[in-house]
Amino acid sequence: MALTKKTRNYIFIAIVAVVAIAVAAAVFVNLSKPAGSGANQTASSTDASEDSAQAANDFGGLETYTLEDGTVLPVVHAWTHPGSDASPYVIGDELGFFHDAGVHVEFTGVIDYDQYLPSVLDGTNDVGDAHPNQLATYIKEGAPVKAVCRMDIDAVDPANATHRHMRYYVRADSPIKTWADLADYNNGGEIIINGHDPSCTSFVPNTIFEKNGLDRERITYIYFGDAEALQALDLGDIDIAQVHPAYYDLADKGGYRLIGDSVDSGVGAASGTALYFFTEEFIAAHPDVVQSFVNGITLAQAWIDEPKNWEEAARLTGEATGLDVVYTHYFSGSTEIIDEDIQFWIDELERGGYLKEDELTVDDLVTKQFYNPEIDWPDLSKSTK
Amino acid sequence: MSMGKTLENLQKLAFGAIPILAFFALWQAVTALGILPSSIIPQPSRVFTALVNAFAQGDLLRYAAISVVNVLAGLALSIFFGISVGLLAGIYLKRFSRYLLPFLRVCEKLNPFALLPIFVLIFGIGRVEKIAVVFWVSVWPLLFSTIDGLVNLDVDTLRSARSMGAKRLVLLRKVIVPMMTPTIFSGIKSSAQVAFFMIIASEMMASSTGLGWYYMKVKTAYQPPLMYGIVLFITAMAILVNLLFTLIEKRFSKWRVQSLGTAE
Q1: Would you say the ipTM is above 0.90?
Q2: Torsion B50-B51-B56-B58 (CA) sign
Q3: A16 touches chain B (CB under 8 A)
Q4: CB 3.0–4.6 Å: which of A7, A44, A270, B191 could bond A3 by disulfide?
């Protein structure tokens, strides 16, 4: 049966009307959703009693968690970290650093890189972490987020060299033994490294090249994960593999030749710096909770950095992530944010054309209100944890 | 084409464009009003500006050209291989293909994303690997549509042609292939679509060029306007590819009618 023109028009108008109503309904639902309500998916593990409702009010409407001794703590939501960078969250949670600091961290599950910022902006997660370049690009696009303290830093002290941010490996039969050998490698032509621009995997090697008098333009970055990079090195698809700590042991056992690490960039702790960030709204509404998080996670990080705890930190991280973790990352044991560590990443973004000159400053990225001089590389040697 | 027909087509186009324009208008409204965070979902006006800038700088076309060349190369190989092997299997090697078909069906069902590392392993990183990926995903629809086309041939027409003394090659050229044209083109269109999506996916891994790699680069630099712009661009390209093959199909249909001497 053929439809008349009039009927077709009615159908068409009806479809447009349904779409418009659906969009309006979605917008209405979004507007009426309270800030932070995205975290409800994990509410089952937090308090649901009337008492907790009272306690929640004490914490500015945040969800709460009650300890066995009856202490009620505010809950901060964080995504689950599947890699070796999970250590501060795992140790902070497992060894009680968060609870001691007055906060409970609830893990909301593993999410994809694309979802980091949206999950913090929509309240599914309260805290996120990122290298300063990533954070800068978020803020450049207008995201109202600010970093509150440092996560990873590079391990400058040679005593901690096994925990540096990244290592650089070549095949055992490669003519490359040091960075200097790259000058004549491939007749001064292309050098292929796994990585992607703009990220730590491009900023750090670029800087290492410059420090060693090599032309950074010779590098071609091929988009690969760390594990695949080692396979690609085997196959001769890349010249240098750069990997993070979770893969150091695999690379060592694989017989690859280590030619250097991220500290060779000469920018100190900056080559490994990552930051924890919250929304500006959350920071303004719950400064005490953020301070508790900053204190708890920094103490956990200081504990991880203690050489006597390396093995245990790796074991706990491995258990939590299912990875065979031998080396953890190295983290900041201080709540202080160092401007130079952030500026390096801003400079590299400017250099790559991703930021205009002086488009963003360190102050646009971070707030230093959570610096706690009492937690500044504390001596945890007498810690019972 | 008469004036009336042209007007009718324009009207159809205008009606078809209304929902699309309404969608972009709503998108613009909810982002401009701050209902959706512009740091995650940018205004379409910013998306189009970013797209135009990427065009002007030449990046978008340069990387798109690389992807398109890889798709065309892989697709050409799969058209040649899929149709010729399909015809061979369906006409001359019926018994052999009967045993082989289950295995080929399994191959078709293998998740191509999971196979990407294997392609890198076998072909190394570069153009050959990308073309091989395109070939792998696009050959199956062609092969099976060719075989299905043969199975569903009109037996009466074949018998008539044979009774009139048509030899195998003539039968193939004048009867079988023309009769199978719609099925084959259906396979080509499916192959082209899947090829396009897979080249983007494969360029997101083990790559340093192409549209997929460009998207990853923009994503790493967190440039949402261009991220959305590239997604729209890829969608537009997929629609264009489909239109292109529909046009080619129409031309072949004319030849088909001429070859068969009658319209079905």
Answers
A1: no
A2: positive
A3: yes
A4: A7
